[in-house]
Design brief:
It is a single chain. The protein has a single domain (8-109), classed as OB fold (Dihydrolipoamide Acetyltransferase, E2P) (Beta Barrel), CATH 2.40.50. Helix content is 17%, strand content 35%. It contains four helices and nine strands. It has helices at 29-35, 82-85, 89-92, 117-123, and strands at 8-9, 14-19, 22-27, 38-42, 49-50, 55-61, 65-69, 74-79, 101-105. The strands form two sheets. Strands 1-2-3-9-8-5 form a six-stranded antiparallel sheet. A hairpin with a 2-residue loop joins strand 2 and strand 3. 33% of the residues are buried.
Amino acid sequence: MNFPDTLKYTKDHEWVRIEGNVGIVGITDHAQSELGDIVYVDIPDPNAHLQQGDVFGTIEAVKTVADLFAPLSGTIIECNTAINDSPDVVNTDPYGAGWIIKLELTAPSEIEELLDAHAYKALIGQ
């Protein structure tokens, strides 16, 4: 499994890449593997404000549905609409084309509460 050192991770299996004051969010390689074939991703429209830990959508696989949790507080500024037509990209490229939302961060200090790649691997027993 792949866990890029450049990302931060949550205990709920989301990742975030920080680019200035924007966080790009998706689910981890481990999460997509556990879910199996992803068939649908339900995410809110841009401009929704989230607090760290809020549910911001769901991800549906063949046999299960899982909530998506905001890794950081912020306002959604973009949703990856390409995953509406090809939700399987979350399986094939979870850290690239399979990103889910972009957040304009409102509390950047929360980044310090997230896990680095080493801590996330330990969490999942890797």
